[in-house]
Every structure is written in structure tokens, then in C-alpha cells.
Amino acid sequence: MAKIIDGKAIAKKLRAVVATQAAVLKEQDVIPGLAVILVGDDPASEIYVRNKERAAAKVGVNAKTFKYPNDATEAEVLAQVEALNQDETIDAILVQSPVPSQINEQKVQEAILPAKDVDGFHPENSGRLFAGQKGYYPIANTPRGIMTMLRHEEIDLVGKHVVVLGRSILVGRPMFALLQAANASVTLLHRYTPADLRRQLLATADVVVVATGVPNLIMGADLKPGATVIDVGMNRLPGNKLVGDVNFETATKVAGAITPVPGGVGPMTIATLLETTVELAANHHQIELEQGWQNI
Ligand SMILES: Nc1nc(=O)c2c([nH]1)NC[C@@H]1CN(c3ccc(C(=O)N[C@@H](CCC(=O)O)C(=O)O)cc3)C=[N+]21
What we know:
The structure is a single chain. By secondary structure, the protein is α/β, with parallel strands linked by helices. The protein folds into 2 domains: about 30-115, Rossmann fold (3-Layer(aba) Sandwich); about 140-265, NAD(P)-binding Rossmann-like Domain (Rossmann fold). The protein has 10 helices and 11 strands.
């Protein structure tokens, strides 16, 4: 049976480090400010907003949510971003993905000041990631949190075959870049990958990261025995049960280690979001911090 990777417990340790960092800022009268813009009513986004407000308050981050209806205009959202760019009390801005179709998500991402871009979606930040640049810049929190989790679990990536399923800007693409920077051999698959090719590649994967939004896409029989499985899926089934993209029942019998849903990647995303927020606040006020993940 696979080891269950306890994302909730690792997130708790990371939040404790972030709380210490926030306390350092507080000594200099800096309270990190995170602004979240939520347009419409995506179910995964609702969970995210609820959990992150709770977690932010506990570590000493001031989180504010700006809710807009499904029919909000692009101009309204851009005006909100602009106001937050100018707001000295706001260090980090996040626009929940997805946004309704009348709003050009790309345009909104590019409107956020790169220094306040807590998701790392601005091309100035994502460009640095894809160029493999050194130095500090914000990186998408879900893949960054997954890297922290893999490091915490001491899972070796050097030269290993890692299969990433899904190519979103939120997860798949930055995940690919981070794993590659960690010297893994990364294969990025997506909805147009034929099932038999997917099966062939998965059979040789030492680590699998699944971020597709398709429940039960990956079964135990698809995995190489002993593989590490990271399930990013967040699917609500009828009856309100929350499941990932991996069939947990069968996968635990084959994998070496696996993240559960809930209690795996989700809590790490939130803890990492707070970590990035505190880093952006420190940069904004030119205060030195010790690096977070090294201390967990
Ligand atoms: N710009 C942007 N950045 C995001 O990072 C982003 C986004 N948009 N849009 C929505 C998705 C979804 N997402 C979640 C994060 C944590 C949980 C989470 O806390 N999950 C708990 C759920 C527990 C419960 O049931 O409450 C868990 O997995 O244990 C859920 C969903 C971030 N997203």
C-alpha cells in the first residue's frame, strides 16, 4: 500500500514558518495585504476563497475578497485591478481563474503589476520561469506547493521520468518548468494525447502529476509500481463528495506514495499563496526574510 502524503500536515508546518515571517514584518509595521478578485461562481474557486480567508487571518495576512457577479464587465475588473495596483496596503493581487467568457483573462493577468502578481501569471514572471531565470519572482502557487511537498517527502527527481497531465497556466505549464529546473525528465500530456500513448508513457513514470479535472482518469493499473502520484484534481461529485482525478482506491495499491483529495495539494496551494504574499510584502518594503520551505 502507498504512503499517503499528508498535504494538510506539511501545509501546517509551512504556515507556521509563514506566520514567523509575517511577525518579522509586523515588527516594522508591515501587514501583508492580499487582494482576491472573484468573478462569478466557479465551485473550485468558492472552496479556495473560503479556505484561504480562514488561513490568511491565522498567519497574519490581511486578505480581502472583491466579489463580482457573473455578468461583470471586463472594464469593471480592470478598474479594480488598477485600483489595487495603486493601493499601498496591497502587496499581492490574485484574480481567480476561470473568469466568465466576456472577460479576457489574458488582459486581466497582464494588467496586474508584476511586483504584486502573486499567481506568477504575468508574462514578465512566467517568462522568467520558462527561461529558467535565477533570482526571485513569483511562481504559480499550486506547482510551487507541489515542489515543496516533493522536497519534504525527499522524493528524488534528478533524471527521473515525470509525467504531467494537463497544460493549464494554473498548474501544468509551470509544473513542467519547475520539474525541468529540478533536473527531471518531464513529459507533458494533455487532452489530445491518444490514450494508448498516455498508457505507454505512464507505465514508465516515476512521478505523475495529474491536473485535468477528469475524475478517475488515472487508475492503479495505469501506474508503474512504486510511482509517486500527485493528484491536483478538485471535482465535486453528485452528493457533494470531493474527489481528485486519480482513482484513489486502485492507485494506493500500486503507487509508492500518493496525495489524497481532500487533504493533499489543496492545503499546500493555500499555504504557498500565503508564503508568496509575505515574500511580495517583504520585497515591497525591502525587508530581508529567511526562505520558508527550507525550514519545514
Ligand atoms: N488564480 C487562481 N489561482 C489558484 O490557485 C486557483 C484559482 N485561480 N482558481 C481556483 C483554483 C482552485 N484552487 C484551490 C485551492 C485549494 C483548495 C483547497 O483548499 N482544497 C481543500 C478542500 C477541503 C474542503 O473540502 O474544503 C483540500 O483539497 O483539502 C481548493 C481549490 C486554487 N485555484
